[in-house]
Amino acid sequence: MSASTLRGLMALALALVMPAAHAHLTQTGFGEFYDGMAHLAVSPMDLLLVLAAGLLAGLAGIPAARFTVLALPAAWLAGGLLAQRWPGLAGGEFIGLVPLVLTAALVALDARLRPAGLRVLVVGAGLIHGAANGAAMTAAGAGALSVLGAATAVVVFVTLLAAESTRAVAGWPRVLVRVMGSWITAAGILMFGWLLHAAR
Amino acid sequence: MKRLHCPPGPTALRWLLAAGAAALPLAALAHTDGAEAAGFLSGLAHPVSGLDHVLAMVAVGLWGAVLGAPALWILPVAFPVMMAFGGLLGLAGLPVPGVEVGIALSGIVLGAAVLAQLRPGLVVATLLVAVFAVFHGHAHGTELPAGASGLLYSLGFVIATGLLHGVGILIGEARRWGFGQRLIRTAGGGVAAAGVFFLWRALA
Fold first, then answer.
1. Residue A144: partners with Cβ closer than 8 Å, 6 or more residues away
2. In whole angstroms, what is the distance from residue B133 CA to residue B86 CA?
3. For residues A45 and A36, is the Cβ–Cβ distance under 8 A?
């Protein structure tokens, strides 16, 4: 890799990395683990990503669903723990929107992804969103237990969603899943617009 | 392009005129009255605040019902994504010429397609709906106020649009009954008539 390419990549990375997400962590009163679990439920971008990933995994079939219900939370946990150690790893909302829109668009298109492609997407999405969680939780003074709580919530949600959407083999259930994918895609694209608007 | 040869009778025309008159709004159109992006419910309410948007969305569903599968669900899948793209352009400050005219034309064309039971190919129908979606999205994108709950607002906005398509599809299901075809064509004519009014307003 030439020096100019390296400089270009570094500049792109710096441009994409936004300041860490605003510190906010729901206080359940039951401790950090449950605070982390609740965090997913009140974070629309995370929740929509888990929804889209669950739907995509279900549409892709049982092997893909099995991989996703394990890999997405594991990557989420890894990203969260890494970002708690190095908060600079966490990207901003722009970065978080990329896997969200991509995953949801694949659901809307009912795309037949190769297994390797799905794995990269699921692990990448988990790492990115987990890192954003980890950085936010650190900023809020929460520790690793909160990240573990968030990853546990991801397990619950993605398992339920993947199990349901796996049954949507054909007909109207599959159409409904695709419609949901298009809605999430559209909301994500609009969110890009909001961020661009705010940055102007 | 196939066309069903069944011109509207006098009764249908009376219904058409009545629907057109009922559809005349006192004021235009798709759009907030200084509402803030407070969240999901605000987004949900935004698309139904303008008759031009509502009628076009319902017409998309109606036309999907006329076209049948797979257009029945491809149009409602394509529309929100392209509408969001238009919204992105609007939020980013990128101009799209003739937005209000495009919105009015969407009512005329989609309504006329339902009235005349036009059945073009899937690609043509999808492209047509996608182009109109950009106009609708841009109009809303330039009007959406920034807020803390942008994603929820957007989601509510998109879901409301999708539900309006659903209303059109449900109305379109009336084709299974004897009076259904006439009802659907009357509804299409009403949308087209309203579109003419919106066009007149846009050009005035």
1. A81, A84
2. 7
3. no
Select the residue of B81, B146, B155 nearest A108 (Cβ to Cβ). B81
Structure tokens given for A157: 């949600």
Q: What is the pLDDT of residues B61-83, one digit of tens each?
A: 999 998 988 888 889 889 999 99
* Two tokens, residue A68: 């996703």
- Distance of residue A71 Cα from the nearest chain B Cα, in angstroms: 26
Taking the C-alpha atoms of residue B33 and residue B199, their distance in angstroms, rounded to an integer, is 22
Q: Is it true that the peptide bond before A19 is cis, omega within 30 degrees of 0?
A: no
Sign of the Cα torsion A188, A192, A197, A199 reads positive
The burial class, CB within 10 Å (0-12 / 13-18 / 19+), for B161 is buried
- CA–CA separation, B100 vs B60, rounded Å? 18
Instruction: Report yes or no: B170 at the A interface, CB cutoff 8 Å.
Output: no
Q: Could you give the angle at the alpha carbon of A112 between the alpha carbons of A167 and B119, nearest 5°? A: 85
User: pLDDT by residue (tens digit) across B2-24?
Assistant: 444 444 455 544 544 444 444 44
* pTM of the complete model: 0.79
Question: In this structure, what are the phi and psi dihedrals at residue B55, rounded to the nearest 5 degrees?
Answer: -65, -40
Model ipTM? 0.76
Whether chain B has a CB inside 8 Å of the CB on A41: the answer is no
